[in-house]
Amino acid sequence: MNFLPLLLILPFILAGIFWLAPKISSHAFRWMALLCSLLPLLVLIMNHDQAVGAELNYPWFSAVPIAFHAKVDALSLLFLYLTALIVFFSICSVDDKVLAAPKFFYFLVFLLEGLLFLFFTMRDLVFFTIFWEAMLLPLYFLINVWGGHKREAASLKFLIYMIAGSALLVFAVLTLYLAGGKTFDIDQLAAVTSSLTFAPIACAIFLLAFAVKTPLFPFHGWLPDAYCQASTPATILLAGILSKAGIYGIFRIGFELFPLLLKEWSPVLLALSIAGVFYGGLSAWMQHDFKRLIAYSSFSHVNFILVGLFVWDATARTGALLQVFNHGITITALFLVAGWLEQRLQTTSLLNVSGLTQFLPHLSWLTLFFVLASVALPGTNNFVGELLILYGLFVTDPWVAGGLALSVILSVIYMLRWMQKMYFEGPTFFQEKWVDIGGREMAIAAPLIALVLWVGIYPNPLINAVKPVIVAFQSDLVQSQGHSLSKELP
Amino acid sequence: MISLRLTLGDVAAIAPLLILLLGSLAILLLESFYEKGARKYSAWFTATVMAIAFVAAYLAPTSTNELLTPWIRFDFMARFFTLLFLAIGFTTTLLAIPFFQRFESSRGEFHFLLIAAVMGLILVGDSADFLTLFIGLETLSLALYVLCGYMKKWSISQEASIKYFLTGALAAAFLLYGIALVYGAVGTTGFAALLPAYKGLDLVETRILFLTGISLVSIGLAFKAAVVPFHVWAPDVYEGATTPVTAFMAVGTKAGAFAAFAVIFIGALAGFNAQWNQWVSFASMVTLVYANFVALKQTQLRRFFAYSGISHAGFLLIPLVAGGEEAFDALAFYLIVYVAATLVAFAVLAFLDETQEGVMLKDLKGLFYRSPFLAGAFSFALLTLAGIPPTAGFLAKFFVLSLAFEAGYYALVIVALLMTIVAAFYYLRIVAVMFSELPEEATPLKRAAPALVIACCSLLVLVVISLYPDQLLDLLGP
Predict the structure, then answer these.
(1) Going by C-beta distance under 8 Å and a sequence separation of 6 or more, which residues neighbour residue B219?
(2) pLDDT at position A481, please?
(3) Residues of chain A with pLDDT > 70: what percent?
């Protein structure tokens, strides 16, 4: 039986349930949402073996031939798992004592999950664009309704950036449609795009949209405000999945439709990504607010993933795919512990408190663990991914690789500076609200710790899972080399 | 030999018009002789008349009687517009009910004028001759001049009414002069003979005469459609008229003007001269840029919807520019989505409308906390108007733009897409106000059950269109 319809509809059903649910206590809603968010994950796990290759195809609009074409491949599957996991953790991070309008909140979260599932499986360019833009709306509301003091400005800035980034997408889609023989099917378009004269324009437009959402340096203007003003669950969704949507776009559209062009442009893109890694790191160093610090560190690490994409090497790309998953887990964990800290301090400023280890020992050690995972300590998940990326870069250009390796030191500096200030310096006066985390928080963190260690110590299953993507890439590489060889030889 | 008899089938074919005519006369009589009854029942009576006419239009056979065919068409385009206008008339009637519960005024004339306006609209959509088209437009306009100033004691309404009358008269003059020139060039005002006659013109002078005539006709219609630079009346008139009348103008008059455009330039004169398309593409760009930027600053919602309507007129011009077989489908699709979304918005405004100034942006503050459903419906309508996926507004825009792209109007497509950024900004600003700010004062919402029905029905239409757009196209087809 095809499980895809179930998977794609399930989040919308859950969203509908929350929309229609009678008013019950916030606490009950949270438990209900937690259990519900496990359902999509369960569907994925139960159908793991037959997931790759599952397909749906319905014609939708005949005047311009748009079809609702969904298909799962190894790449989609990775992102589907990531989405299901992060939605679960994001709901875990909800503080049900302060959450206003919980019904509407969970409705939006499941709506977002549904749109993301659709986005990660679409094979029709128009639907790809539709869900690409549609996922903004729930996020916009999540920031706007439940965020901090400046949430309105932040959410509007976020939205305008996103819409401006994707406004011309329709133009690119139409270009491909007309030049590519009147079809919106990505697989069919892939066969013809390399010969189009308009291809560079279309590719640039797509790339701009992905660059804004990921964000690639220098398209990150919206990021610090949005990450900081959003509530913890929304920040987790933003950092954990939304940034990955851009990366998925680069894989799905960039590498499938415009491989030759992107290869040609990769030095520039690589330079921008490396600049982003350092810019993010240095900015994180300068922050006096730990949520902003983590936001910039996330920006830096996401650009590290982009480095892996644009090196044009199979190992680096494996590393990048691994990092997609790892970064999702680590950044979720970091924002989770930062959220717990914020709950206790009622501020995100670094200036007024220090030496919290005395009062919050468990939270302190937990934070330290995730911080070390984030700075890629051997044995944690990020170590494996970043090492693979650096290795791929080293093979291509040792000097650049050497330079980039410095960024790892940079990340240690800013992360440990935070730990040092907040937890380990001379303590400030104790306050009543500083209650250490308990069993509930530990239970939430436990699966995250397990995932960090699992990928860190035994990454093979994950590497095997993403192998089909890399194999396809390698065969492309061989083909294009053969292609260029045959061009050179008369 | 021409038969001079109308059979029962012919009467059935024009039944919607006859039903409206009889209904409007009946309501005038009711108002004259039994004012108390008119006060109570005229709205429901009008709604019933519209509904019956709708069913009649749906079932109506086509007629080939030569007494009718030179004046009235019975093709799928006419049928579509008839049904659309009747639906608009029906919804406006219901939207007016809560308004009249709040503001004291006589009712009978209002409904008589409303039916007359709808009749004018239908005549425009069905016209097979410039003269029928003109009569239709004038019937519509005359009724609207009065409807705009219906609240006699509101000074802004008086101003709106006189402004509308003056510009409307000017537009009619343009239109009529254009028709005269066309007649002078080709010797006919019938649509069917227009294109062959134009193709047969040999002399440069007569061609110029014809093209001048068509230009004047286009300008006359551009006034009605509020296309920049012939839009100046729209903001003031929308602001000054009462909310139900503004709703009617936003959807009805707009749809009527584009029905006239479609009948002439998609039906009769399809692709007659590439230069006309160039000029219209230029007008569309100017309209989009101007309206979208000015809409950024609006705080009175009726005025805001005037600019929103102008910007959508820019979009609606695009299928006319692109031409081709699918132009009518694209126009009709866009029109349906625009009408449904705008009706949802005005239905929500009916809950908030309590002074003659109308609803201001600040009145929407915290609407989400007062009524999640209304806020949700209003947001959905605004997102649809902004064309943000996955609403049907996106598909409508995509469809329209794909035609323009195929016809090679790249600059137009790019301008339109860039303007959607601006549009997203001002539509979403309203959404943000509803969701993020707390209400200033906790006055309970007005009661407006009929408006709620309209909101629900229009929402349903929008959702169904998003899910099954193909089926809608099938319905539109011949």
Answers:
(1) B171, B174, B178, B230
(2) 59
(3) 97
Contact A215, A250 (CB under 8 A): no
- The nearest CA of chain A is from the CA of B417 a distance in Å of 6
ipTM: 0.85
| Binary contact (B383, A137; C-beta < 8 A) | yes
Q: Which residues of A touch B414 (CB under 8 A)?
A: 168, 171
Q: Do A63 and B421 touch (CB under 8 A)?
A: no
Taking only the tens place, the pLDDT of each residue in B225-258 is: 999 888 889 988 988 888 889 999 999 999 999 9
What is the Cα–Cα distance from B104 to B109, expressed in whole angstroms? 14
Exposed/middle/buried for residue B444 (C-beta within 10 Å: 0-12, 13-18, 19+)? exposed
**Band of residue B81 on the pLDDT scale cut at 50, 70, 90:** very high
> For position A98, what pLDDT does the model report?
75
Q: A153 falls in which pLDDT band (50, 70, 90)?
A: confident
CA torsion sign for A57, A59, A65, A68 is negative
Query: How many degrees, rounded to 5, is the angle at CA A403 between CA A402 and CA A409?
Result: 95
Q: What is the spatial distance between Cα A383 and Cα A380, in angstroms, rounded to a whole number?
A: 6
B326 contacts A59? CB cut-off 8 A = no
Interchain pair B413, A129: CB under 8 A: no
Nearest Cα to A317, choosing from A275, A270, A257? A270
Residue B42 lies in a domain: no
DSSP string, B308-376: HHHHHHHHHHHHHHH-STTHHHHHHHHHHHHHHHHHHHHHHHTTT--STT--BGGGGTTHHHH-HHHHH
Partner-chain contact B432 A63, CB within 8 Å: no
In a domain? residue B221? no
Rounded to 10°, the helix B392-406/B410-436 angle is 170
Model pTM score: 0.90
CB pairs under 8 A between A and B: 86
What one-letter code names the amino acid at A55?
Answer: E
- Our CA-based measurement puts residue B258 at a distance from the nearest CA of chain A, in whole angstroms, of 21
Q: Name residue A484's amino acid.
A: S
Other Cβ atoms less than 10 A from the Cβ of A221: the count is 13
Average pLDDT, chain A: 85
- Contact yes or no for A126 and B398 at CB 8 A: yes
Using CA atoms, how far residue B358 sits from A32, B179, B238, B292, B362, in Å, is: 43, 39, 10, 22, 11
What ranges in B14-34 are assigned the alpha helix state H?
15-33
Q: Distance (Å) from the C-alpha of residue A145 to the closest C-alpha of chain B? A: 5
Residue B451: which domain range? 284-478
Chain A contact residues (CB < 8 Å to B):
59-64, 104, 115, 126, 129-131, 133-134, 136-137, 140-141, 144-145, 151-152, 155-156, 159-160, 163-164, 167-168, 170-171, 174-175, 177-178
The verdict on whether omega for the bond into residue B229 sits within 30 degrees of 0, i.e. cis, is yes
Q: Is residue B470 part of a domain?
A: yes
Torsion angle of the four alpha carbons A395, A400, A403, A407, in this order, in degrees rounded to the nearest 10: -80
Binary contact (A63, B330; C-beta < 8 A): yes
pLDDT digits (tens, 9 = 90+) for A242-283: 888 999 999 888 888 888 888 888 889 999 999 999 999 999
Count CB neighbours of A352 within 10 A: 8
Half-sphere exposure of B311 (CA within 13 A, CB side): 30
Distance of CA A95 to the CA centre of its chain: 23
Where does the pLDDT of residue B43 fall: very low under 50, low under 70, confident under 90, or very high at 90 and above? confident
| CB within 8 Å: B388 and A63 | no
pLDDT at B172: 93
Q: How many domains does chain B contain in total?
A: 1
B114, part of any domain = no
Best of A137, A161, A166, A173 to substitute, by most chain B Cβ atoms within 10 angstroms, is: A137
